[in-house]
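Morning - heme C inputs below, output right after.
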Amino acid sequence: MIQIHFSRTLMVALATAGLLFSSASIAQPDVDAARLLFDQSDCGKCHNPDKNKKAPSWKKIAKTYKGKATAEAEIIKHMTKGGKVKLDDGSEEEHKVVETKDPKALSNMAQWILSY
Ligand code: HEC
């Protein structure tokens, strides 16, 4: 009995520690908020998260930035600065600027992209 009780307690403790650890080490993006911003900002005109359209998918972008310490900063810079980009058909268009200036929302958007 004591043995069983002890191992249960231990398991609960380990599970709790695991949860705390994972939430502290991995940034979990708020997917709903990011998707809403994606729609509001018309990003879907050129980007699809899973498939390359006129523009690279989030999958492709996430792969490019994987393991880069500056990934979030670079993505935020790209979504906020505007400027001309080349579409896959060779035409050029002004890159859309994301419809927010809230640093938290920008960070969340970048983390959502990187989560692919
Ligand atoms: C007019 C079409 C178009 C729209 C709209 C658009 N993008 Fe892009 N985006 C592109 C193209 C084309 C590229 C790839 C060319 C490049 O990186 O210069 C790109 C690249 C990117 C990259 C990768 C940059 C890099 O350094 O690899 C990110 C991140 C990005 N877009 C985010 C967004 C977000 C967020 C939105 C919505 C606010 C958005 N884009 C709207 C066309 C678009």
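Note: The first strand starts at residue 84 and ends at 86.

O.
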